[in-house]
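User: structure tokens for Beta-lactamase family protein, please.
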Amino acid sequence: MNDLNTFYRAVLNGRLLPPALQKEMFTTVSTKGVQWIDNTAHGLGSWTYAMGTRDGGHMVVTNINGDWGNPISILTEETEAEMCPPRSR
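Assistant: Done. Predicted tokens:
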């Protein structure tokens, strides 16, 4: 996962893209109603989640298989443990 950390850190801190492209990348668009495989909304059950501070100084990247529990709960708990100081939870 170190390669994902390196990549996302470069994206977030502006080393990878020119400012105009980075701004476009952070401009969100609605995905409501979009499915990438017919009759599915979530894919195949493997989740990779990458998150970092806006400057790329602190990163967390994880990959889980949805067969082992609720992926959203697991990802939320892991992100909180890594990114949130204990006193703010």
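User: Anything notable?

Assistant: The chain has one domain: 2-88.
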